[in-house]
Amino acid sequence: MHPSNSNVSLNHLMTAGVAAGTVGLGVLLLSRLGEAKPPDDYLAQLFRSESMCSGLITVLPPADVELARFRAECMPSGLVICSPARIVEYAESKLLSRIWWHLTRDERFAVSTVLIDLIPQYFDHVCYEGIPGCVGCGTGRLETGWCVNNAIMRWAVFSGSPLFPSLASCYYKRKTDAEWNCFLYAAPYNLPCYLVSMDNPRHSIAGLQIGDDVREFSSWRFFQYDNNDIKPGDWQMKYDCNVEIHIPDHIECGGYWTVLRIVEFYIDEDGVVSVA
After folding, report:
1. What is the DSSP letter of 122?
2. How many CA within 13 A on the CB side of residue 73?
């Protein structure tokens, strides 16, 4: 389900350009590397890969006005004071993704806490092959919601991509929900969030990059179900375990495939983490 044949070392994704829809820089870069044309904005995110184009991309200066406005309204002292609904507005408008790497690490952690805690902790049912276009389940096939389904739902909100239209016919709901919810989130946040798999036991969660260096375990915030900050030793991340962080190449209702691995960590039997 999660084969990986490439280990890509990333710094920050080019979230500002992607969020604003400005793929011109990516097109220009590709034309200089081989006259190739990127399929869409999602692939443009990959151009922050140091192994592909080290030194060729310069992150644009911070959006000073947007950054100042966000801090003044929501984080004047480093703590979030505005409502969760307002944080979601900043995330859905892509302003948060444009200023993400100009916030401090503590600010990124505080903001992500608000957003993660708004995600449904669990869902019980998944509808495969529902009505396309996020209309509803219809006569789709009903299945139990597993960890990979829950991880994909979190990725679709925090990152998301129009490259995976199959998610528009996938739905989920909790026992208490009257209506089905579409996996294809209408206004994804465009934040550096990825899918994470583990092998002891096999488990899927989501990982959000909040630190600068992807090869530093502390740069990642892992979340799934009712845990918004999964740590080694938790039941969802046991010792003697490999933790792989992926960029998905193909997603369907029941799983994902990937050819791009950002980084892999190994947690030994004493809980010591190293890059695998």
Report:
1. -
2. 15
pLDDT score, position 56: 40
Residue 271 vs residues 41, 164, 198, 208, 248: alpha-carbon distances, Å = 38, 36, 15, 21, 27
Peptide bond into 201 cis (omega under 30): yes
Tell how strand 241-247 and strand 141-144 pair up: unpaired
Nearest to 130, CA basis, from 184, 98, 168, 85: 168
Which of 38-47, 106-115, 178-187, 219-228 shows the lowest per-residue confidence on average (mean pLDDT)? 38-47
Residue tagged 């490439």 (tokens): 6
β-bridge mates for residue 144, sequence order: 125
Beta-carbon contacts of residue 73 (< 8 Å; ≥ 6 apart): 82, 86
pLDDT tens per residue, range 203-236: 999 999 999 999 999 999 999 999 999 999 999 9
Which residue type occupies 144?
A: T
User: What are the beta bridge partners of residue 205?
Assistant: 196
CA within 13 Å, CB half, 113: 11
> pLDDT category, 28, cuts 50, 70, 90?
very low
pTM, two decimal places: 0.77
Cα 266 to chain centroid distance, Å, stands at 21
Q: What is the pLDDT of residues 170-182, one digit of tens each?
A: 999 988 888 999 9
Q: Which long-range contacts (CB under 8 A, 24 or more apart) does 53-57 make?
A: 53/29, 56/29, 56/32, 57/14, 57/25, 57/29
Q: How many residues does the chain have?
A: 276
Tell me the mean pLDDT in the region 79-84.
Answer: 97
Cross-strand bridge partners of residue 171? 127, 182
At 261, list the tokens.
């691995």
What type of residue is 60? Answer: L
Work out the widest C-alpha separation in the chain, in whole angstroms.
53
